[in-house]
Amino acid sequence: MTSARQEILDKLKKATLSKAQPCPPDFKQPVYHPLYGGLAEIFKQNLELLQGKAHICDDEQQLFAALKQRIDESGWKQVCCREKSLQERLGEYNIPVNNCLKIPDDIEVGITSCEYLVAHLGSVMVSSAQGSGREMFVFPPVHIIIAKESQLVDYLENGYEKLTGKYENNLPSMISVISGPSRTADIEKTLVLGAHGPRSLIVFIQNNI
User: Of 44, 123, 162, 172, most Cβ neighbours within 10 A?
Assistant: First the structure.
């Protein structure tokens, strides 16, 4: 008479022998799903899934008009921008900003450029080589990014490829990918924005003319 233990072992052995052999992976297949549509719209959709905001503007004038309206409506007073080229453009459109060489305690908004926008992830690539430095990506409660359509890439690997081509053998000491506002759900699995950085991320994209 077969013991219960032996019956279980026989069933396990039979199941193991009848199990189909796994198929080897096909390394020639693409890793990512293809993207359909314009990269700007794809980026906007994916960023907003991460609770960020994106504005696609037809030209520079429309972009800075929308930015000024957002600042005025929000009542932001302590707006910081350290990048000279951006400061000049903001000044041309009567958008007052402070240089903020030292981050003030009451900072409300930080305005920076970026390296690239990754459509697939809705993420922003930034680096320490930008004139804003590292602090402006972390300390302001609201982070506003000014970008051009030409800075859009489809996938992250292509963003890194462009970055290495841009800087060649002199890569920045810090390269980071920002995916929406800073967040955590460590405590009771409740999502909290702004835990380790900006609680709001807004990206303005200027279409190429």
Answer: 123
Q: Tens of pLDDT along 115-140?
A: 999 999 999 999 999 989 889 998 99
Domain positions in the chain: 35-206
In 10 A of CB 105, how many CB atoms?
A: 7
Alpha carbon separation from 128 to 6, 152, 196 (Å, rounded): 65, 19, 18
Dump pLDDT digits (tens) for 70-104: 999 999 999 999 999 999 999 999 999 999 989 99
**Residues 41-73 as b or e (16 or more Cβ within 10 Å = b):** ebbbebbeeeebbbbbbeebeebbeebeebbee
Please state the pTM of the whole predicted model.
0.82
Residues 6+ apart with CB under 8 A from 143: 109, 110, 112, 136, 137, 178, 197, 198, 200, 201, 202
- Spatial separation of the C-alpha atoms in residues 164 and 116, rounded to whole Å: 12
Structure tokens at 78: 């302590």
Biggest alpha carbon–alpha carbon distance for the chain: 94
Q: Which residue carries 């297949």 as its tokens?
A: 29
> Which of the following CATH numbers is that of domain 35-206: 3.40.50.10420, 3.40.50.620, 3.30.590.20, 3.40.50.300?
3.40.50.10420
